[in-house]
Specification:
Elements (H helix, E strand, L loop, with lengths): L1 H10 L3 H12 L4 H8 L3 H14 L2 E6 L2 E6 L6 H14 L3 H12 L2 H4 L1
Antiparallel strand pairs: 1-2
Helix pairs in contact: 1-4, 2-5, 2-6, 3-6
């Protein structure tokens, strides 16, 4: 039980993972879209997504040639649900987050993937 909670908090210990959570709270995204927004290598983005998925924050779904990542709405863990609510509130006015959200609105995955 303690290890599970540690995994949850570890997932939130990186600013890029917080940025990913906030972007995914706005819309489903593929690795390419997240990569462009974060200006990181695809392998680095994939590692961050793996940590978030393993901790229960996000899920993935294959759609044609894309794998879409999204907030895991099926996870009923009260800790994760509470943290997602808190993060949405706490990160809403962060300038980096606002820039990320503008970027993902302007990206067309057909052009970058």
């Amino acid at each position: 039980m303690l290890n599970e909670k540690a995994k949850i908090f570890k997932a939130l210990s990186d600013p890029n993972r917080l940025r990913i959570i906030k972007m995914l709270s706005e819309k489903d995204l593929c690795v390419c879209e997240i990569k462009v927004a974060l200006k990181l290598a695809g392998s680095t983005v994939s590692q961050h997504l793996s940590v978030l998925k393993d901790s229960g924050f996000i899920s993935e779904e294959k759609n044609g040639k894309w794998v879409n990542y999204r907030i895991n709405t099926e996870n009923k863990n009260p800790v994760i649900l509470s943290l997602l609510t808190l993060l949405n509130y706490e990160l809403a006015h962060d300038k980096t987050i606002q820039t990320d959200l503008q970027i993902i609105k302007s990206i067309d995955r057909k052009d970058i993937c």
